[in-house]
Amino acid sequence: MDVGKRWRGVRRPADGAHGMLTRVSLPITLITGSEEVLVKQALEEARSEARERDGADPDRRTVSAADDAAVPALAEALGPTLFDEPALIIVSDADQIDDALWRVIDTAIADPPPGVSLVVAHPGGVKGKKYLTALRAAGAREVSCAALKKGRQTEDFLAAEMRRRGRKATSGALHALYEAIGHDVALLIGAITQLCSDVESGPIDEEAVARYFVGVADMQGYRVSDSVWDRRPVDALRDLRWMAEASGRAGVGPAVTAMLGSGLRSLVRVQGLPPTMSDAEAMQETGIRFDWQLRNARTRAKRWRADRLAVAVVGLADLDVAVKGGLREGESRDVDQKLHDMETYVVTTASRSDA
């Protein structure tokens, strides 16, 4: 069997077209790759296109090529309906297509059923490649849903998502969004949807990203910082996990290390002050703005040895690099890895018995 043969069918035009024959092709969408959220997005786009093309919401029918009954199930799904209602036929697990199932698909390509749109979802790889080639030859619109690499490729994808929605974002905004949320494509797409909805005009910048995805984390980050430098490891871990949950995990990132760094700097500055220095002089010397902050810092400083604060400084610098992606260009860590790194740091640092 020649799996590469093209569409061969014709359909008669409406009356008044002088008897000319018009080619009718089967609308085909070929989805390649297994990034779940991208596959769902591509399926929704195919459904929207079918709705616009046929003027009604299509009946969605899914047949797995891996099913033992795939051949009769697909033949039935592609068959005509009583009133030619529009239908979106989805063939999943397309790497399992065999010659028998392909004959059913090829028949539909040759003689397209009225109102039917076909989606073929292939998870990727070389298995079933000849059928993909035949679908492309038949004019299939291909949508790549391959897993995104961490770093630059994902940020390029975010820029494309912005353009798809008719919006623009600065490169700094996209980088800040990626740092705040991590390599979670579903959350990133949701974040872009929210930003496009809430920021009414103009390019979306870093300030907008900070307002929606970092601001909440900043406030909760202070609680984590206080627990660590008060040497309350249980509270520090609880506060960190609560913050991650409350912020939809988007707050797990540089915002937390910034708050930890702020508290640590206050401790280091206070430890270097003469014990007889007045509060007013100490505030001027350290840059601490409020007397209650100075009192808290002085109380905490009594619990820490200078060498242990030095260890905490080095550890926090390493943590900051980890949550921002790493030392190599394009490197990144997903949200679970970032959370694990921060949990380890806050518990280890706050628990030091000889601090």
Q: Which key terms come to mind for this protein?
A:
alpha/beta, 3 domains, disordered N terminus, 5-stranded parallel sheet, Helicase, Ruva Protein, domain 3, Rossmann fold, 15 helices, 355 residues, Zinc Finger, Delta Prime, domain 3
Task: Please describe what this structure looks like.
The chain has helices spanning 36-54, 70-78, 99-110, 129-137, 152-164, 171-181, 185-198, 206-213, 215-229, 233-246, 254-271, 279-286, 291-301, 306-323, 335-351; strands at 28-32, 59-64, 87-92, 116-122, 141-144. It has 15 helices and five strands. It has three domains: 28-65 and 86-144, Rossmann fold, CATH 3.40.50; 152-213, Orthogonal Bundle (Helicase, Ruva Protein, domain 3), CATH 1.10.8; 215-351, Zinc Finger, Delta Prime, domain 3 (Up-down Bundle). It has 355 residues and is an alpha/beta fold. α6 (171-181) runs parallel beside α8 and α11 runs antiparallel to α14. β3 (87-92), α3 (99-110) and β4 (116-122) form a beta-alpha-beta unit. 55% of the residues lie in helices and 8% in strands.
Provide a compact summary of the structure.
With about 350 residues, the chain is of the alpha/beta class. It contains 15 helices and 5 strands. It has 3 domains: about 30-65 and about 85-145, Rossmann fold; about 150-215, Helicase, Ruva Protein, domain 3; about 215-350, Zinc Finger, Delta Prime, domain 3.
